[in-house]
Write a structure and sequence with these properties.
178 residues, alpha/beta, Rossmann fold, 5-stranded parallel β-sheet, 6 helices, FMN binding
């Protein structure tokens, strides 16, 4: 009987340790949203993961004229044409060291992540963190954005991202469990 009691106590201790470790794992859901679409998806990701929501904001907000992709001289067109462009952030994410997992969300521009995502990644220390991308788009998949960011920041620990166009809360729950 003593052996059985000891065995049961040991199993309970292991379970409690696993639960405590899971709860101590912190998630950051960082996102850039020019029109509000990606923001809506980010809020659901934060809700289902229990993550902290952080908006990646440019120092100078984008106007509708800045976002006019038909105009080759618009701000977004000029930034996307220059791979070295790094729009300035209005602020840096605080306490990045506290997070184990970082979801990064953005609208897809010209089949890529907007250059402000590069600025965000370069502004912090992501070593040892799991980085997961999510995006919204009017017509592109996330694959090229993922490929380019993973190539540029090959030292980061990436997990498969997802395009969240029309994703339901249940879809996002299933994706984040993986």
């Amino acid at each position: 009987m003593k052996r059985l009691t000891f065995f049961m106590v040991a199993i309970m201790a292991l379970c409690l340790t696993a639960i405590a470790q899971k709860q101590s794992s912190k998630t950051l859901v960082a996102y850039f949203s020019a029109t509000g679409t990606t923001e809506k998806a980010a809020k659901v990701v934060a809700e289902v993961t229990g993550g902290t929501l952080y908006e990646i904001q440019p120092a100078k907000k984008y106007t509708s004229a800045d976002l006019d992709w038909h105009d080759k001289s618009s701000r977004s067109s000029v930034e996307m044409a220059d791979a070295k462009s790094r729009p300035t952030l209005s602020s840096k994410a605080e306490n990045l060291a506290d997070y184990d997992t970082v979801y990064i969300g953005f609208p897809i521009w010209w089949n890529l992540a907007p250059r402000i995502i590069n600025t965000f990644i370069e502004s912090g220390d992501f070593s040892g963190k799991t980085v997961i991308l999510f995006a919204t788009s009017g017509g592109s998949s996330i694959s090229n954005s993922e490929k380019e960011l993973q190539k540029t920041y090959s030292n980061l620990k990436w997990q498969k991202g997802k395009l969240l166009n029309g994703a339901t809360k249940e879809d996002i729950k299933q994706w984040t469990k993986k």
